[in-house]
């Protein structure tokens, strides 16, 4: 285990937690200005995510490393296998300011990103996309995020 990688990942996750603590209201208002069921759902998702971060950050370095390779967090790359044809596709789940469709970096606010958040390696799920529903298996999860995120 490389201590620098674990330390850097831990630091990045702490910064995410601080961001949601300090910028939560501005963030929600920016992306969901009107009270709606969509906004309420996203508020619930963010609270759940912050709770997940707290749990993950309480872990020892070896447990943290295992979590970073098993559960999809902001900054994780999830490799999916479509059950119907074996096609493989990877997505990195990022903050909305860091999306890059050419690199399959998708926002956790997007329909696909929000479905993949919290998914675990080996999990099977039905992924709803604009073109239909797909049975997929989460083949692999790696925390690989080296970018940052902008304050609102």
UniProtKB/TrEMBL annotation:
<protein>
    <submittedName>
        <fullName>Transcription elongation factor GreA</fullName>
    </submittedName>
</protein>
<keyword id="KW-0648">Protein biosynthesis</keyword>
<dbReference type="GO" id="GO:0003677">
    <property type="term" value="F:DNA binding"/>
</dbReference>
<dbReference type="GO" id="GO:0032784">
    <property type="term" value="P:regulation of DNA-templated transcription elongation"/>
</dbReference>
<keyword id="KW-0251">Elongation factor</keyword>
<dbReference type="GO" id="GO:0003746">
    <property type="term" value="F:translation elongation factor activity"/>
</dbReference>
<feature type="domain" description="Transcription elongation factor GreA/GreB C-terminal">
    <location>
        <begin position="74"/>
        <end position="142"/>
    </location>
</feature>
<dbReference type="Pfam" id="PF01272">
    <property type="entry name" value="GreA_GreB"/>
</dbReference>
<dbReference type="InterPro" id="IPR001437">
    <property type="entry name" value="Tscrpt_elong_fac_GreA/B_C"/>
</dbReference>
């Amino acid at each position: 285990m490389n201590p620098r990688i674990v330390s850097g990942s831990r630091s990045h996750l702490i910064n995410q937690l601080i961001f949601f603590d300090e910028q939560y209201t501005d963030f929600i208002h920016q992306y969901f200005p009107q009270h709606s069921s969509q906004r309420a759902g996203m508020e619930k998702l963010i609270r759940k995510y912050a709770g997940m971060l707290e749990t993950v950050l309480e872990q020892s370095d070896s447990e943290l490393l295992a979590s970073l390779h098993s559960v999809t967090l902001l900054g994780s790359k999830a490799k999916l296998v479509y059950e119907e044809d074996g096609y493989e596709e990877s997505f990195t789940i990022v903050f909305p300011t860091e999306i890059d469709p050419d690199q399959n970096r998708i926002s956790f606010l997007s329909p696909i990103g929000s479905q993949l958040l919290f998914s675990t390696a080996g999990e099977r799920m039905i992924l709803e996309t604009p073109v239909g529903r797909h049975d997929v298996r989460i083949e692999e999860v790696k925390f690989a995020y080296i970018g940052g995120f902008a304050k609102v």
